[in-house]
Write a structure and sequence with these properties.
The complex is a heterodimer. By secondary structure, chain A is α/β, with parallel strands linked by helices. Chain A has a single domain, classed as Phosphotransferase system, sorbose subfamily IIB component (Fructose Permease). In chain A, 34% of the residues lie in helices and 26% in strands. Chain A contains six helices and nine strands. In chain A, strand 8 and strand 9 form a beta hairpin. The termini of chain A are far apart. Chain B is mainly alpha-helical. Chain B folds into three domains: 180 residues, no CATH class; 152 residues, no CATH class; 141 residues, no CATH class. Chain B is globular, with a radius of gyration of 25 Å. Classes of the chains: A alpha/beta, B mainly alpha. At the A-B interface, helix 1 and helix 3 of A face helix 5, helix 15, helix 16 and helix 17 of B.
Chain lengths: 158, 535
């Protein structure tokens, strides 16, 4: 099993908060983006790879490939950060027995079908149900933009 | 304090948070060095204002505020801190210790603003549904700025108008010992700001330059300007040795090729400039949790939409609704996304059917994150701390050129990025944007700026972090052995400030939040100052 140091739901994926704050706080050297759509998009792959700072490798995988990847034995010193756009992916990983102790809810933009959930988090009813199921599996979920912010337990927001 | 003074100070605070800073207010008016200086102008003591503002600003050198995560209201800290110092006749250090909690309290204003602004999105939506481009400034600028004005003017007014007159009596009541201990705390706190910058700025290989900058100032007594020139030369030498000479960097920035003849067909230069100007002015005028810069993006697209579809109301409705969706990026580096969107919409209006609405939306949302990552790193993480460090070092000596020089340099840099980014997006398109991102130029720019930043930051430690021991050991008869003067200062002047800064950095690296570290320093410094361990 790969060494997962951080898991975050954030539909802007790699952006300022991730680059200037989170990867400075944790010894991350690999960012795994799990998104079926993106894994087919060569241009976006180039953009995300180019946006990562020196020393950080970005890999974009489909959900199925990501599961296989995470099950592999870790390379020496490899520390993975998982980035996904929606909670359902996390749920799927948990169902496949990939252990994730803690999920950070960072950003979900407003769009059709979603309502404001908390500050910059908008979510549909199905997504909120998914939050619930993730937490029922014993995974802790917190809302936190950057490490310096106070962590808010998502349970208290439901 | 006169009513007029209090009104002017509160107005100043609003302006620092507002949208009226010509696209660079966030980098200039909002920074404590600048807002402190201007507060000093209002209070009749610009030099003192610059010095106090500069001191307070050290704490917020590495302030980034990515994606609306604002750790402290630095403008309020600057205005109120400086006001307290000048009206209460306090030292910059004491004022700083008092400004910190004010800054923390002020973050409530930001949360309130971003929540309330969501309401204005509803009105903007109604206008978009009617294709009404002429009154869009009302929900995107007038209403949010009006509510921001109320939310920022009133609290600031209450604090400075009613609070200022109590500063002197409270200080007298506290007595010399307690004020002395507060001064000790204020002298130690800049270590947090420097350590935070350290965390944002320092890649493994540039750390050593921090020590070089520190030593150059401590042993050779270099002033900030001297250090600045030395640091510049050292950075160029280092970059050349790494094979990143200036020529290479320049060549890389001119490289992107595009086909100009397909641009400026339906759009003209005037429309592009208009769109650009609206973007720099209003990108965060209605910053809110739901759409972030969504309405600001649409506002910048309006000149384009009007030009492309002057007589097609349905099309205007459609485009306004598309372009006020959730959007958030770093305004300067991300400006190319507006330019690119303008180019794509122009092609679409010419009848190019390969470009769909979905495609434009996915390019927008794909680019906004990565460009925010790059922009926040360069603008907030390296360039601003570098400029601030250098000019704070000048302002500290009571030289107001420190403030003016900073404002000019920061504004010119940001405007340059804004314009070139927008133009690149419009004229050269997405391949050029990705080309620049992949060329490695950006990482070289970050490396160069962080080497330069480390050098000047090292120089700042000895000047801004103040901590010295007041313990004297009797060594027979009347003789006293001063640990500070006869031990620390002999080996390495500024040793304690350096150790304090490094210790603070270690704590934060371990995951202790900046607020907690500040609280620890406040307690240690206060107690240490009170019992006479620290001077």
């Amino acid at each position: 099993m790969k060494n997962i140091v951080l898991t975050r739901i954030d539909d802007r994926l790699i952006h300022g908060q991730v680059v200037t704050a989170w990867i400075k706080q944790y010894p991350i050297n690999k960012i795994l983006i799990i998104d079926d759509e993106l894994s087919k998009n060569k241009l976006m792959e180039r953009i995300y790879k180019a946006a990562a700072p020196i020393g950080i490798e970005v890999i974009i995988k489909t959900l199925e490939d990501a599961k296989a990847f995470l099950m592999e034995a870790p390379e020496a010193g490899e520390n993975v950060m998982i980035l996904v756009k929606v909670p359902e992916i996390i749920e799927d990983l948990l169902n496949s027995d990939i252990p994730i102790d803690k999920v950070i809810l960072g950003g979900m933009g407003a769009k059709k079908g979603r309502k404001t959930f908390n500050r910059n988090i908008s979510a549909s009813d199905e997504e909120i149900e998914s939050f619930r199921r993730i937490m029922e599996k014993g995974t802790e979920m917190i809302y936190q933009l950057v490490p310096g912010d106070k962590a808010v337990n998502v349970k208290s927001l439901l | 304090m006169s009513l007029l003074t209090a009104i002017l100070l509160s107005l100043l605070y609003y302006l620092g948070n507002s949208t009226w800073g010509l696209g660079v207010g966030w980098w200039t008016l909002m920074r404590p060095m600048v807002s402190g200086f201007l507060a000093g102008v209002v209070l009749g003591d610009p030099v003192m204002g610059a010095m106090v503002g500069a001191q307070i600003n050290v704490l917020y050198l590495g302030f980034i505020g990515a994606g609306g995560a604002v750790p402290s209201d630095i403008c309020l800290a600057g205005v109120v801190g400086t006001t307290i110092a000048i009206t209460g006749n306090l030292s910059a250090e004491t004022a700083m210790a008092l400004a910190v909690p004010v800054g923390l309290l002020g973050t409530i204003i930001n949360v309130a603003k971003m929540t309330i602004n969501t309401f204005w999105v509803r009105i903007a939506e109604k206008m978009a549904a009617k294709g009404d481009t002429s009154k869009y400034y009302i929900p995107d600028v007038i209403l949010p700025q009006l509510s921001l004005f109320i939310m920022s003017f009133i609290p600031c007014f209450l604090i400075v108008y009613f609070g200022a007159e109590y500063v002197q009596p409270v200080i007298d009541f506290l007595g010399e010992n307690i004020v002395g201990a507060l001064t000790t705390v204020g002298g130690m706190l800049p270590a947090v700001g420097i350590a935070l910058t350290f965390k944002a700025l320092f890649k493994g290989e540039s750390i050593v330059f921090f020590f070089l900058g520190f030593l150059m100032v401590q042993y050779f007594g270099l002033g900030m300007i001297g250090l600045g020139f030395m640091a510049f030369v050292i950075t160029i030498i280092y970059m050349q040795l790494k094979g990143h000479g200036l020529e290479n960097i320049k060549a890389g920035f001119i490289q992107p090729e595009g086909n100009e003849e397909t641009k400026y067909v339906l759009l003209d230069k005037k429309t592009i400039k208009k769109s650009w100007f609206r973007w720099i002015m209003f990108n965060q005028a209605n910053y809110n949790y739901e759409r972030m810069q969504g309405t600001g993006f649409c506002h910048a697209m309006l000149p384009i939409i009007n030009k492309l579809y002057p007589n097609n109301k349905e099309k205007r409705e459609e485009l306004m609704q598309t372009h006020m969706q959730f959007f958030n990026t770093e305004p300067q580096w991300g400006a190319c996304i507006i330019g690119l969107t303008a180019a794509l919409e122009e092609k679409r209006a010419q009848g190019n059917e390969e470009i769909s609405e979905d495609m434009i939306t996915s390019i927008k949302s794909g680019l906004m994150g990565p460009l925010a990552g790059i922009g926040d790193t360069i603008d907030g993480g390296v360039v601003t701390p570098l400029l601030l460090t250098f000019f704070i070092g000048i302002a500290q000596t009571g030289n107001i050129f420190g403030v003016i020089g900073y404002v000019i340099c920061a504004a010119l840099f940001m405007w340059t990025v804004y314009w070139n980014s927008y133009k690149l997006g419009y004229e050269k398109g997405s391949d050029a944007i990705v080309g620049i991102m992949e060329s490695g130029l950006i990482n070289r720019l970050i490396l160069g700026a962080s080497v330069l930043g480390c050098l000047v930051l090292g120089g700042l430690v000895g000047n801004y972090v103040t901590l010295s021991l007041a313990i004297n050991i009797p060594v027979g008869g009347e003789e006293l052995f001063s640990i500070q003067e006869q031990l620390c200062d002999v080996i390495l002047p500024g040793m304690l400030p350096l150790l304090l800064t490094l210790g603070t950095y270690k704590l934060m690296k371990k995951g202790v939040s900046a607020v907690k570290v500040m609280a620890i320093i406040a307690v240690v410094g206060f107690v240490g100052g009170l019992v006479g361990i620290f001077a």
